[in-house]
Amino acid sequence: MRILMEFSYLGKEYSGYQIQPGKTTVQGELEHWLSEFFCSKINVIASGRTDSGVSAIRQIAHFDINEEILLNTLGGRITDKSMHSLAIRINYLLPTDIRIVRMSQIEGDVHTRYDAKSKTYCYNFYLSKIEIPYLSQVATWLKYSEIDIDNMRDALKILEGRHDFTSFCASNTDVEDKVRTITSTSIVRNDLGFYTISITGNGFLYNMVRIIVGTLIEIGIGKRNVSDMKLILDSRDRTLAGKTAPADGLVLKEVDLV
User: Fold this and answer.
1) Which single residue of 60, 84, 97, 123 could bond 197 by disulfide (Cβ 3.0 to 4.6 Å)?
2) Are 5 and 63 in contact (CB under 8 A)?
3) Residue 148 bears catalytic tag
4) What is the pLDDT of residues 206-232, one digit of tens each?
5) How far is 256 from 96, CA to CA, in rounded Å?
6) 249: three-class secondary structure by DSSP
7) Residue pLDDT, tens place only, 141-169
């Protein structure tokens, strides 16, 4: 039986999502405590991995479990109420910075990694000469008094569509196909004073969003021109793009299945 799990986590204390030997990861915590809870080995397969320090509001994953074990745990019936209660019970075991938001049964051939239709990442940042402690909990602090958001928006629009994003991929990746499609982008400022860059696409390369953000910031502060974005994109050369932005401002907002 296959279970779909929507979960949220704060990434500051983790070495990314994916299990790594000798390191604390989100996947490692989920698999450990789910296996403890069901007294059965559970393998969690998420829609994708996030880097060290990156958070998620709505990540999705699935795991397979013996039907008899699940039914015995639920008291014999799979209902919305029993699955909600199951999530609450497991959350009592998990670290406080990881929470299962929803659990449900799905068809056996649905795969959260291969059937993910789109993902939306958000990058939060704020401007201040002095750090604002509260804002630093949810956004990256940039030590500037002003930045040209209109230029950043114009540059970001250049990336919409289907492109080879080699220039915005970490050089140490082993992925050969670097063509991705970005379907929508935006930059907004909320009442608390921080900005959010949102990017939705069918998939993202290693460090792709953070490199895009780093390049946008350089455009915003006048270090680069808006037109440079297309030159960087077409060059397929990572060395021409900006620095990789810090991980703490990045959050996976949501994932949509086919």
Assistant:
1) 123
2) yes
3) no
4) 999 999 999 999 999 999 999 999 999
5) 25
6) helix
7) 999 999 999 999 999 999 999 999 999 99
Please enumerate in sequence order all residues whose Cβ is within 8 A of that of 222, keeping only pairs 6 or more positions apart, or say none. Answer: 148
Share of the chain above pLDDT 90, in %: 90
Question: The whole model's pTM is what?
Answer: 0.94
Alpha-carbon distance of 13 to 247, in angstroms, equals 12
Query: Closest Cα partner for 95 from 19, 23, 28?
Result: 28
β-bridge pairing 2-9 and 55-64: antiparallel
Q: Specify the pLDDT at position 107.
A: 80
Q: Whole-angstrom Cα distance, residue 257 to residue 62?
A: 12
In total, the chain counts a number of residues equal to: 258
- Angle (CA) 204-208-214 rounded to 5° is 150
Annotated catalytic residue, options 51, 64, 150, 228: 51
Kind of pairing between the strands at 116-127 and 194-201: antiparallel
Residues of the chain where predicted confidence (pLDDT) is lower than 70: none
| CA nearest neighbour of 185 among 156, 225, 218 | 156
With a CB cutoff of 8 Å and minimum separation 6, the contacts of 68 are: none
Contacts for 99 with CB less than 8 Å, ≥ 6 apart: 7, 8, 9, 91
User: Quick check: 100 and 6 in contact, CB under 8 A?
Assistant: yes
Tell me how crowded residue 95 is: count the other CB atoms within 10 A of its CB.
16
